[in-house]
Amino acid sequence: MNIERDGDYITLSMGPHHPATHGVLRLEVTTDGEVLTACKPDVGYLHRSIEKIGENLEWFQFVPYTDRVDYVCSMNSNHAWVCAVEKLLATSPETKLQIPERAEYIRVLFAELNRISSHMVGVGAMTMDLGAFTPFLHAIGQREYINDIFEKTCGARLTYNYMCVGGVNHDLYPGAEDEIRKFLTGLEVAMKDFNRLISTNNIFKGRLAGTATISAQDAVSYGMVGPNLRASGVDFDLRRDLPYGIYDRFQFDVPLGRAYAGSKGKIGDCYDRFVVRLLEVLESIKICRQVLDQMPPTAGVAEDPVGGWCVAKAAQKALRKPPVGEVYFRCENPRGETGYHLVSDGTKIPYRVKIRTGSFTALSIFEKLVPGLMIADLVAVIGSLDIVLPEVDR
Amino acid sequence: MSPVLSRNLNRGKAQPFDAILAKVMVSFPSAKAGSSPNGERWIAVQPSEMLEVARFLKNDPDLSFDSLACLTGVDLLKYPVATKDSPPCTDLVCVYDLHSLRHNHELRVKSSTSRELPVVASVESVWGVASFFEREAFDLLGVSFAGHPNLRRILLPEDWIGNPLRKDYVYPQTYGGVELKREGQTFESGPYQ
């Protein structure tokens, strides 16, 4: 940490190794006593040039790299990439893929499970940043069950490489449906415990009520996406409004920020962002149950159009000569819209891969949002925006 | 909270691409329609007019493109040209993927600029998020944005030389006194071949 004095103002560097910055983020803040007057986010410490790597690998080889774009929700990152490539292939009738029904259901099921686990990490880490350690353990405990399910399915606990263009790499293991149902029941109980423990705690509420309020106009203009956008009262969810995959088959609500903290709360404050994530977990549970009810049983053959899980041969053939052109695909990830802008020159290697992530754009609001806050609130802001740094730097 | 943005309050009517194009053409005669071989369509505007076009797209009540979903820079140096006779295109293109929350419709706007003097008008004052997107395009592709208040590198170190996402980028041999070349690797072909 280096400190510079300029009259009454002090410039200091928060990070890049501050434990509350969720990775390596450096915030250059100027303070007047305890009050912040300016904040410049400095990112790039984790830049691994994933977009450049994308221009050197074949389409299907890029899937493991999407795991590393956002490792807290790798399934969702996989999902966004494979859907983007399938959208590109679907622009030509020769390369259009017929994804098996069961694969589509498995994708949604795992994307929602990973959303639950990511939100649990998000709210748990936020409480820990604010000084409450126990809720973090409760939250991360639920994530362990999900990791177990993923590990039994694809062998990895964090970076899955599970979805592929044309479906998913493996079928569900026998008994997975029952195990997931059992987990969802347990999760509902655990959520009640979690809310009793911290969400309804008056100190916690009072700490966050009215802190760092983001208005709806600012949220839209500064590219806030996902839960951060909805916490400001903007009613937009890609799963409902621009549905991709089979999301149009499920019934679920879109939770919005409603000044949950009570009389002192405002729409779009830190507490709203916290509560919207918890409510989204409940909606994801609803979607998971509907998936399990509707999912066709396994056919035992990968290529089966209903009970199969992957049309690998057709996908490999199509990816050798994809259509020339470009697509932009947007996917609702736990940290908001993840967009892939793909440019194809008709060869087996992408011409340009642009990854648009929710955390990157969430950081752009810091310069406007932070002036006027107290130093201690900065940690709450970072926690409530649920920023994951590998996703920012890519 | 603005009433137009909240739930079920008269969500507007999505406009088809042709209607949007016609509206833009009336105000900006230099705008052109473009399409890719796979059927994606866009509006191509002059780089110097980008700011006015952006303001128009955001403020027109029928269009109301209130969010910039993505800004992508693309280097066309090695992109295949449409016909064999047409001259090779070496331009840098900024692609703006826009979305309207009120009408729930989307639009792609492109602004093509020369490789030698790549300058596009900044839209930072229209969509706040463009501030970061433009810095990223400046960093990785070397496109300058006229009117951006704080245009500097964002992902790479300040002293980095070159713009890695340009197709003629040459990999540096050293950085900060550290040898970057590894055994069996040629810089001409890139590190992943």
Strand and helix layout:
The complex is a heterodimer of chains A (394) and B (193).
Chain A: E1 3-6, E2 9-14, E3 26-32, E4 35-42, H1 50-54, H2 63-69, H3 74-89, H4 101-129, H5 134-154, E5 163-164, E6 167-168, H6 176-199, H7 202-208, H8 216-221, H9 227-231, H10 238-241, H11 270-294, H12 312-320, E7 325-333, E8 336-344, E9 352-356, H13 358-363, H14 366-369, H15 375-385, H16 389-393
Antiparallel strand pairs in A: 1-2, 2-3, 3-4, 5-6, 7-8, 8-9
Helix pairs in contact in A: 2-3, 3-4, 4-5, 4-11, 4-15, 5-6, 6-11, 11-15
Chain B: H1 17-27, E1 32-35, E2 41-45, H2 50-59, E3 67-75, E4 92-99, E5 106-113, E6 119-121, H3 130-141, E7 144-146, E8 174-175, E9 178-179
Parallel strand pairs in B: 2-5, 6-7
Antiparallel strand pairs in B: 1-2, 3-4, 4-5, 8-9
Task: Summarize this entry quickly.
The complex is a heterodimer of chains A (394) and B (193). Chain A is an alpha+beta fold. Chain A has a domain at 71-320: Cytochrome-c3 Hydrogenase, chain B, CATH 1.10.645.10.
Keyword list:
heterodimer; A: 394 residues; alpha+beta; Cytochrome-c3 Hydrogenase, chain B; 4-stranded antiparallel sheet; 3-stranded antiparallel sheet; 16 helices; globular; B: 193 residues; alpha/beta; Beta Polymerase, domain 2; 5-stranded mixed sheet; 3 helices; 17% helix; 23% strand
Quote the CATH topology of chain B.
Beta Polymerase, domain 2
Shape of chain A: globular
Helix-strand pattern of chain B, N to C? HEEHEEEEHEEE
Q: Could you give the order of strands across the largest sheet of chain A?
A: 1-2-3-4
Helical fraction of chain A equals 40-55%
What is the C-level CATH assignment of chain B?
Alpha Beta
Radius of gyration of chain A: 21 Å
Q: Determine the mean pLDDT of chain A.
A: 87
Q: Please give the alpha-carbon distance between the first and last residues of chain A.
A: 25 Å
Uncertain segments of chain A = none
Find the count of extended strands of chain B (DSSP E, 2+ residues): 9
CATH structural architecture of chain B = 2-Layer Sandwich
- When the domains of chain B are counted, the total is 1
Secondary structure: helix percent of chain B? 10-25%
Counting helices, strands and paired strands, the structural category of chain A is alpha+beta
Biggest sheet of chain B, in brief?
A: 5 strands, mixed
Proportion in β-strands of chain B: 15-25%
